[in-house]
């Protein structure tokens, strides 16, 4: 059997020092304390510290610690003779990683010395035994610590207890169930009622912010924070911890009927709405009024919906009609507009919008900027979570001090478990925040997505995607439409008369390219004349004849 390679220490009296606190029994100043002790040790033993590595609030069970990895890379170049540690567990609390790290240091010619633990220097056999013992104790502490955390989580889960997760509209304290926050619960109810009554989410957000109402992170409300409130099943009594959901574990703020009404509206509005279909004749023919969810009357602000009517000649025609005008409310004068006509205008706009690469790039940039403005401030969120963990660490440190003084009973044990559960939850949230940050939307993602839909807008699926994701509202007047877009404050105005000329001329060009013969004079455009006649009702079958 091959013999282990004999350790050859680097020459000289240079040293490096590694400091870490595990955030479960140390406080923020512990690194300073470790540094002070390391400097004193170096002076006492005539060593020169050439590089220091510090890792605050970093678990000793993790091998991927940045400063640890940096140290392992640099020891080959720096070739120090010594590594100064406070204790064995500063290097690692893992029973497998610890020996690997120490072997890497030994291979680089570095001898590890400890400030606060006695390791015989002149008896290699005893030194190995003592070092292994300290390492085993550190690993055992980590294993027991994890078990305590798990027990705390299971206890909180079984009893539906507050476990440190803050939910808007609720309050909680250790050893107790969540309670309704009587100051914020009415705000939750108002958010749900407003959205159920058709108030846009952006309007709700603006109202909350103008009222000075903050999120659970004490920040301005955003679309994301309101959306989380509108989808949180805690408000209908579900208790959540990890992947477990317990019905009836939370006090109810919202009734089921209102909650699920809001969920249907969220699903509908996510993709621009479930298009309203109407039976249009005695044969129950279904007509798709695909603009319904986007149309707003430019005069009274009410919505336009599809309707049909039969002429004296028995011909069936389809229209978009303002609700108030049809019901003779608010003295709205908006005339009905032919379905084919309005849809032709919008179809033209969508085609021009999405097929122009310059416009697509501009839209992509604005979509991306909008997403950036609405996204979480990951840095602030992570810092807030770390601050909460630091506060818990301080409390745990106080408990540890009490234990060291002999004060240990059921109360201190239970309180420690509660704090560990809270810390575990916060640590998990930090990891989720990091994942969200890593998967952040990029500008090129938006560009590629829009490029997919630079297709023929007569394709219903492509048309629906472009309409749903880019168009906010279409304000309809008797002589024009005004289109507002998502992600930008731009408003596009389309004049009917001007667009009629464009569409008519485009039809002429298409006929020329297709080789059709027709009579056209310099000052006469029969297609345009027919189009104009259709606008005033002289030829109501024009659009049905194939003009798109």
Automatic annotation (TrEMBL):
Signal peptide: none annotated. InterPro entries: DNA_bind_recomb_sf, DNA_bind_recombinase_dom, Resolv_N, Resolvase-like_N_sf, SSR_resolvase, Zn_ribbon_recom_dom. SUPFAM superfamilies: Resolvase-like. Transmembrane segments: none annotated. It comes from the Bacteria. Residues 167-272 form the Recombinase domain. One of its GO terms (molecular function) is DNA strand exchange activity. This is Site-specific DNA recombinase.
């Amino acid at each position: 059997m091959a013999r282990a390679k004999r350790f050859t220490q680097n020459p000289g009296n240079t040293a490096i020092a590694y400091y870490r606190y595990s955030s479960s029994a140390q406080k923020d100043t512990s690194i300073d304390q470790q540094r002070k002790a390391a400097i004193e040790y170096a002076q006492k033993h005539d060593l020169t510290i050439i590089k220091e590595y510090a890792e605050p609030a970093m678990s000793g069970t993790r091998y991927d610690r940045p400063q640890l990895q940096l140290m392992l890379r640099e020891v080959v170049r720096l070739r120090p003779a010594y590594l100064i540690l406070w204790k064995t567990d500063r290097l690692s609390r893992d029973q497998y990683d610890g020996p690997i790290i120490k072997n890497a240091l030994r291979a680089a010619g570095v001898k590890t010395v400890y400030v606060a633990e006695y390791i015989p220097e002149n008896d290699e056999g005893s030194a190995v035994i003592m070092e292994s013992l300290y390492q085993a104790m550190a690993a055992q502490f980590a294993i027991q610590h994890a078990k305590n955390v798990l027990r705390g989580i299971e206890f909180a889960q079984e009893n539906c207890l507050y476990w440190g997760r803050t939910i808007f509209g609720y309050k909680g304290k250790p050893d107790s169930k969540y309670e309704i926050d009587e100051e914020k619960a009415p705000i939750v109810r108002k958010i749900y009622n407003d959205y159920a009554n058709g108030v846009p989410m952006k309007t709700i957000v603006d109202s909350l912010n103008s009222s000075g109402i903050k999120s659970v992170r004490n920040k301005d409300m955003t679309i994301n924070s309101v959306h989380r409130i509108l989808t949180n099943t805690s408000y209908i009594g579900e208790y959540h911890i990890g992947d477990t959901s317990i019905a009836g574990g939370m006090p109810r703020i919202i009734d089921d009927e209102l909650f699920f009404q809001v969920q249907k509206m969220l699903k509908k509005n996510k993709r621009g709405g479930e298009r309203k279909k109407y039976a249009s004749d005695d044969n129950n023919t279904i007509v798709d009024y695909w603009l319904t969810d986007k149309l707003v009357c430019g005069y009274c602000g009410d919505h336009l919906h599809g309707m049909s009517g039969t002429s004296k000649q028995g011909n069936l025609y389809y229209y978009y009609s303002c609700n108030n005008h049809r019901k003779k409310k608010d003295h709205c004068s908006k005339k009905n507009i032919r379905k084919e006509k309005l849809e032709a205008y919008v179809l033209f706009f969508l085609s021009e919008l999405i097929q122009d690469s310059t416009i697509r790039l501009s839209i992509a940039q604005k979509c991306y900027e909008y997403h950036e403005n609405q996204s979480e401030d990951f840095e602030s969120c992570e810092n807030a979570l770390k601050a909460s963990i630091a506060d818990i660490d301080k409390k745990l440190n106080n408990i540890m001090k009490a234990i060291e003084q002999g004060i240990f009973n059921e109360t201190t044990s239970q309180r420690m478990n509660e704090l560990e559960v809270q810390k575990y939850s916060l640590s998990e949230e930090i990891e989720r925040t990091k994942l969200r940050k890593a998967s952040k939307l990029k500008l090129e993602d938006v560009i590629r997505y829009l490029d997919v839909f630079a297709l023929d807008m007569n394709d219903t699926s492509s048309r629906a995607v472009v309409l749903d994701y880019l168009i906010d509202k279409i304000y309809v007047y008797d002589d024009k439409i005004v289109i507002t877009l998502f992600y930008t404050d731009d408003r596009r105005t389309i004049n009917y008369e001007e667009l009629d000329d464009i569409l008519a001329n485009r039809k002429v060009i298409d006929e020329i390219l297709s080789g059709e013969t027709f009579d056209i004079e310099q000052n006469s455009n029969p297609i345009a004349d027919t189009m104009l006649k259709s606008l005033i009702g002289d030829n109501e079958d024009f659009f049905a004849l194939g003009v798109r």
